[in-house]
Design goal:
By secondary structure, the chain is mainly α. It is built from 11 helices and no strands.
């Protein structure tokens, strides 16, 4: 066998060895190559990794606001959702996720999550419903809010908000210290139907809460918030221990 033939035979053997190695057990398949975290743009994957633990696997039944609720998606536009994801909500457990705000997600990844959340919307379900605004500059009156609470909420949450036979306390100091006024407003409007808490239309059968009543109720709830969150404060587990200023 001449030198050229030997070289050709060696090349063929080397090629066969490479092919055998590439298909041998334990060799990583092409699709198993790791993807850099900042290159993931699948909305379902991003939501599962960053949002589901608090907001539920399908945007419902989590500890935090139900992002998949059709009422929430009807009152909160993409800009609101994106702003909240990117910059978080100061003073609450909602952290910023944007790289520009100290998080780990790119702008493209945040846009993907917003699109995924928006895909849960059901616009036809609320087509003929007059919706209260997601946010408002109207300042609520906490004293009027006490009356609103008694009318719409006390049958479930108790006369003073410390819990009743159907629902738990909504004036607990620890809870109020970790939630924003906007969160309170959103929860009043959207409710938590999956847990038996109706939206703004169902607290009093046949009579929806008005936008002003919602603002007044939020003001009343906010007035129960500890003045110095995180600092020791009185035990508020009993009714009558906190009043309006």
């Amino acid at each position: 066998m001449n030198r050229t033939a030997r070289r050709l035979a060696f090349a063929i053997v080397a090629l066969l060895v490479c092919v055998a190695c590439s298909s041998s057990p334990g060799h990583p398949a092409p699709e198993s190559v790791a993807v850099r975290p900042d290159q993931i743009v699948d909305s379902a994957v991003l939501y599962r990794q960053n949002c589901a633990a608090c907001h539920g696997s399908n945007g419902k039944a989590g500890a935090a606001i139900a992002l998949g609720d059709p009422v929430f998606l009807a009152i909160a536009d993409d800009a609101v959702i994106r702003q909240t994801i990117a910059n978080g909500v100061p003073g609450t457990p909602m952290p910023p996720f944007a790289e520009s705000a100290g998080g780990m997600l790119t702008d493209l990844q945040i846009d993907a999550i917003v699109r995924g959340i928006r895909s849960w919307a059901k616009p036809d379900a609320l087509r003929n419903v007059t919706l209260p605004p997601y946010s408002t500059k109207v300042v609520g009156d906490p004293r009027l809010g006490a009356t609103v609470y008694a009318t719409y909420c006390s049958s479930c949450h108790g006369l003073d908000g410390y819990g009743g036979s159907k629902a738990s306390s909504i004036v607990d100091g620890s809870y109020l210290a970790l939630t924003s006024d906007q969160d309170l407003r959103t929860n009043v409007i959207v409710g938590r139907p999956e847990f038996g808490a109706p939206d703004w239309r169902g607290d009093l059968p046949g009579h929806s809460m008005s936008a002003q009543e919602i603002s007044d109720l939020v003001a009343w709830l906010a007035a129960q918030r500890p003045k110095l969150p995180g600092q020791p404060y009185a035990n508020l587990s009993k009714p009558g221990q906190r009043g309006l200023p």
